[in-house]
Amino acid sequence: MNVRFMSNGDSRNDHRIRLCLLVSSLEFGGAERQVVTLARSFDHDRVTAVVCSLSEKVPLAASLPHREQSLRIVRKWGRFDFTTVFRVARLLRRNRTDVVHAFLFDAEIVARLAALIARVPVVVASERNTDYTRPLLHRAALWLTEPLFDVMIANSQAGKRFNMRTLGLSESRIEVVHNGVDVEHFRPDAAAGGAFRRKLNIPADDRVMGMVGSFKRQKAHDAFLRTAARVRGQMPRTWFLIVGDVLRENLTESNRYKEEIKALAESLGLADRCLFLESQKDMKAVYNACDLTVLLSTREGTPNVLLEAMACGVPVIASDVADNAIIVLDKVTGYVVPKNDEATPAEHAVELLGDPAKRKEMGAAAREHVRLEYSINTATEKMEKVYRTYLGRKHRYVSARRWRSISVKARTSS
Question: Taking a C-beta distance cutoff of 8 angstroms, is the pair 49, 70 a contact?
Answer without folding.
Answer: yes
